[in-house]
Amino acid sequence: MPTMPRLRSLSVLLALGLLASGGASAQDNYPSKPIQLISSQGVGGGVDALLRAIGQGLSERTGHGFTVDARPGANGLLATNACANAKPDGYTVCLVNTQFVLLPFLQTKPTYDPIKDFEPVTHIVTASLALAVQKNVPARTLPELIAYSKANPGKLNYISLGAANPVDLGIELLMRQHGVDWKAIPYRGAADSTLAFHSGDVQLMFITSLNVMAAVANGSGTMLFVTGNKRLPKSPVPTLAETGFPNAAIGGIWFALIAPPGTPKPLREKLAREIAEVLKRPDVLIRAEETGYELVGNTPDQFGAFLVKERSQAGPLLAGKQKIN
Which of 4, 79, 173, 286 is the most buried (most CB within 10 A)? Predict the structure, then answer.
């Protein structure tokens, strides 16, 4: 009888050892098939191109990459809802951005908790944003745009990607800072936004720098500033601080991967490591530098801590803002 507790302890240790070895085996074989990436971004934008480049890099490293399922709209809820209901086996992840943290603060009854209801994978990139004005508007600098807007209240409109989208928040902060009034025109993503800007249906575009550069490349308009601490390479466009109207609350937009609740941490850690290695590729680094992308590629724990910090900062920023439902 005295030996039974020891035998029981040995049995427990043996079982734990077998579980650990089984978990290691599963991680070693992961991924053994393509990973479905549910994206909150539309097809054709700069981030979509980066995702596909990462998927190609993963395929070269592991034999399997991403199949991208684009579900833009509804302030990111189409993507996050699909991710929340997916099987937590490591073969479904979801691309989210800053909006993922902002949205619950703007809902009367929040539909999810960004910290508790999903599993962090990795922070991929933070993209600088840029403001462009359509060529038919007589303004080629931010001070000129502010002066024209005040002289013509309500005349200008801008591309809106949703009330909880960080680009909309940036526009609102600009309007509040300078006492101007621009009208929001809703669009689903970068591709249809660019078409609207080209056609002159909207006068102001404030989205990722890469998409704004593409929108003005044919002469449709002029970039007025970029967010961040430095200019884009080979570009004369000033930073927001250099315009003489700095605003610390207006920054870039981050993009990251989350996984369904219950997705094993070892799988998330391995995927994060593989993505971090892909982000070190010279072609990816050069492309990021040219487009104002700051590549990150951190661990699930680091990204989880980042989410906690982002949420703590978003609360005061959105206090008193009108709820969207």
Answer: 79
Could you tell me the pTM of the whole model?
0.80
61-87 pLDDT, tens per residue?
Answer: 999 999 999 998 788 899 999 999 999
Please answer whether residues 156 and 233 qualify as being in contact, where contact means their C-beta atoms are separated by less than 8 angstroms. Answer: no
- List, as own/partner pairs, every contact residues 28-31 make where C-beta atoms lie below 8 angstroms and the sequence separation is at least 24, other chains included: 30/90, 30/267, 30/270, 30/271, 31/58, 31/62, 31/63, 31/64, 31/90, 31/91, 31/271
Give the model confidence (pLDDT) of 248-291 as tens digits. 889 899 999 999 999 999 999 999 999 999 999 998 888 787 77
Contacts with 185 (C-beta within 8 Å, 6 or more apart), sequence order: 157, 158, 159, 160, 196, 201, 202
Q: How many residues does the chain have?
A: 325
Q: Report yes or no: 119 and 261 within 8 Å, Cβ to Cβ.
A: yes
162 and 144, same structural domain? Answer: yes
Give the domain range for residue 68. 35-124+253-318
CATH of the domain at 188: 3.40.190.10
206 lies in a domain? Answer: yes
Q: Are residues 73 and 133 in the same domain?
A: no
The answer to whether residue 220 sits within a structural domain is: yes
User: At a CB cut-off of 8 Å and minimum separation 6, what does 22 contact?
Assistant: none
